[in-house]
Amino acid sequence: FSIGNLIDQLTGPQISLYSLSWHPTRCFIAVGTSDGFVDVWGPRMDWTAFAPDFQALQKNVEYIEKEDEFDVIVDDDTDEVVKRKELSDKIEERELVDVTTIDRI
Asked: Which of 19, 33, 38, 105 has the most Cβ atoms closer than 10 angstroms to its Cβ?
C-alpha cells in the first residue's frame, strides 16, 4: 500500500497507448498500443527461487534447441535413447537432411 509515493516505474514501448485496463483483484495492468500489441505488467518475480541459475535478459534472445533436447523418454528405454542420440549426431553432422529415404528401424 502506498500513500502517493512512486514505488515503481513501468518501461515499455515509446508509442501511443490506446487503452489501459487493470485486473479487479490482482496486481496486473494491461495497455493496448498503436502497434497492435498488448503489454501486461504485474508484480516482479524472483525467478532464482525456481531456477537458481536463472539470468534475466534485457531483451529477447533467439534460442535454438537441440533436436532431442525436450524429448521425453518413458521407462528408461536406453536402447531408444542410444538410437535417438546416434540419429541426432548424424543429423548434426550433415548439413542437408534426406527426407525422401525411408530407413528401417
From this structure: 33
Model pTM score? 0.40
Residue 42 and residue 26: Cα distance in Å, rounded?
Answer: 9
The rounded distance, in Å, linking the Cα atoms of 88 and 71 is 12
| Amino acid letter, 2 | S
Which residue do the cell numbers 535417438 mark? 84
- Please give the distance of CA 48 from its chain centroid, rounded to a whole number: 16
Residue type, 56: A
User: What is the C-alpha to C-alpha distance for residues 81 and 2, in angstroms, rounded to an integer?
Assistant: 56
Residues 6+ apart with CB under 8 A from 80: 73
Using one digit for the tens of pLDDT, what is the confidence trace for 58-86? 788 888 888 877 777 666 666 777 777 77
Residues linked to residue 30 through DSSP beta bridges, in sequence order: 21, 40
Q: Strands, DSSP E only, in the chain? A: 17-22, 29-33, 38-41
